[in-house]
Amino acid sequence: MQMTAEAKSSNQSASKSGASREIFLPPERDRVKDGGKPHLSAKNFSIFYGDFEAVKKIEADILSKYVTAIIGPSGCGKSTFLRAINRMNDLIPSCYTSGSLMFDGEDVYGKYTDEVQLRRKIGMVFQKPNPFPKSIFDNIAYGPRLQGVKEKKVLDEIVEKSLRKAALWDEVKDRLDKNALGLSGGQQQRLCVARTLAVEPEILLLDEPTSALDPKSTAKIEDLIEELRGSYTIAIVTHNMQQASRVSDYTMFFYEGDLVEYAPTKQLFTNPRDQVTEDYITGRFS
Amino acid sequence: MNIGTRKILDRSFTAVGLTSILLMALALLVVVVPIVSGGIGAIFFKGTIEHRKLQLREFDNGNREVLDRQIAESEPYRQEVFRMLDAFAAELETFEPTRKREYSSKVSSVKDIVSHLLGPVPGEPEPILLRFQYGTTRWEKAEESLHDLMFVTKWDTSNPEEMGKQYFVPRVDEFAGTSLAALFPYIEENLEKMLLPEQTFYWGFLTERSLDAHIFGGVWAEIQGTLFLAIGAMLFAFPMGVIAAIYFTEYARENVFTSILRSANSTLAGVPSIVFGLFGLAFFINTIKVSDSKSVLAGSLTLAIMILPTIIRAAEEAILSVPKTYKEASIGLGSTKWRTIVTVILPAALPGIITGGIISLGRAAGETAPIIFTAAVSVGATIGLGDVLTSPTPALSWNIYNLASEHEAANEIRHVQYGMVLALISIVLLLNLSAILLRARISKKLKG
Ligand SMILES: Nc1ncnc2c1ncn2[C@@H]1O[C@H](COP(=O)(O)OP(=O)(O)OP(=O)(O)O)[C@@H](O)[C@H]1O
Ligand SMILES: [Mg+2]
Prior knowledge:
The complex is a heterodimer of chains A (286) and B (448). Chain A has helices at residues 2-20, 78-85, 115-121, 136-146, 152-165, 169-172, 185-197, 215-228, 241-247, 265-270, 275-281, and strands spanning 38-49, 52-63, 67-71, 95-103, 106-107, 122-125, 203-207, 233-237, 250-255, 258-264. With 286 residues, chain A is α/β, with parallel strands linked by helices.
């Protein structure tokens, strides 16, 4: 099976692999401290659902401390790629990968990789806010508790810090013991961000974090991403082109499982190299 | 289809649906009303002085002074009865032999009824069985006995084509012309003064043991046995069922083995309960010998096997209905699968799991067939918690059947049967009610 998959994508590799490695740092004023090292490196990385190759032979580095947006039409494999980074796809029995994906020099799919530890370093926020049916406090404390933090004082600190980072503290500080499902959708999503931050991950994966939210909450989440930029490596899937251009430093454009173009966001939106990219960002299809 | 026909169809369906629901409610009413009223009669009835004597002497309940006063109050009327009987005994001696024989058999049925009403007649040997040591404890029974005293039941078999017809002859006629003829109007007149019936609220029916095979006393042994068996079954079946459900939903791969297990589970749910009873006898008692003979342990295990499929299914469904996003969130935060199950999935599935569990508990409490061969005895003492591994126990479900069909005085103790039925139904209803309440509470907590 893999043979056919390889044969299929080698036809297209000429058009794509050239683009993938040419990544430039942003202009001086937009740079972040210590950023720009390859945090994640995909080499010849494919993801399959059974026989179906949903993501094809990706060659790309995601740079540390920058925000990378992933765009592309529906069904092109954005979520699949994002979920592969912290091995959430392990939950889908038919899903497997080929090629390699390195995280800080460690093979994500290595034989001896502890996927549970990995997920603590690579946090994820999902499209639909998914707080646990527990109190706000317990939601945030869930991750730290997993790592064995028990002291109430330490947990208190973590909860406050995470909620402040997620710009939610002022809204919920008086009702930390209330059920998280009582929050509004936007608050829930920021809670999910805070919950992920509480684990102190290095990478933050956001899969369409604002698609279920109203414009006001969306703006808050975008501000939040801006806030976190420079401290975390962030990959965000979005359908919203304005959002991608607003919040990201780099943009990956996926099309039918291929990484068609990967460039600094400004360049990709103003001067796309590929015709398909241009068609997509100008809204000729979606 | 045009609007007219559609409306007519709608209406007629509504009518049919309503009718069937009404019919069901009616049938339920027909069953429940007698059970409830009969069962309440076991606790709330007109009790005679004999009931109070029994309570004081056997269970040490009641007020001795009041009772003594009442005894003193009723005694003169009783003495009059015994005096009349004595006088007649003396008169009998003067009769010629054939007449004497005839009357002594007649008077002995009178004495039987009198002692049934008032307790042992003085001068007769002290009876051994408790049931003969006291008179009638319930006033409605006393009225029945009074009728037996006043009338002789005869059968008219003159027409061979038909069944015999029952008719009554006043007993007083049999003693016309003797001194005993005065006894009948006297008792009819003064029975109330001899028995002093009072409205009685007999809680002890639920909390006291039975005396002399349920002729007197309560049904605590049965209630306790039922609780032991049902809770025991739960102790085995609930953890096993939940673990199996977790395995099925979270760990099992879809393969032949799993699908065989699944269908075995569904099949097991449909097996008649008597089969489980026989299995329990053959396996738990005869093969692996968890106890020498019937025991609460063997019965609980048998019931556990019976309710296991239901618990598994309910738990499976509850676990599957937990949103997948909870699991994703937990796994995504770096939780292990097991930890996710324990801290996120099970708490969210808890309402469903508990509902399934309690409904199974109710079923275990009500089943008869599985415990016939493995745990139940018809008449037994209240057992202690320490005896559950080795001793059998009476239990409501089995004793209801037993009292109704095999008890020597089944007709005398209908109220006990009704009381047991009511107790059993109440237990099951209470369990279901608590399931509903618990479920509502937990769901509310989960929803915030
Ligand atoms: N569990 C699965 N099993 C089989 N195929 C799947 C599964 N999940 C996704 N796919 C397929 O993989 C392809 C990529 O799906 P993916 O969810 O990654 O798309 P996406 O780019 O995130 O789309 P969207 O923008 O709609 O979220 C699609 O063709 C989809 O049908
Ligand atoms: Mg998606």
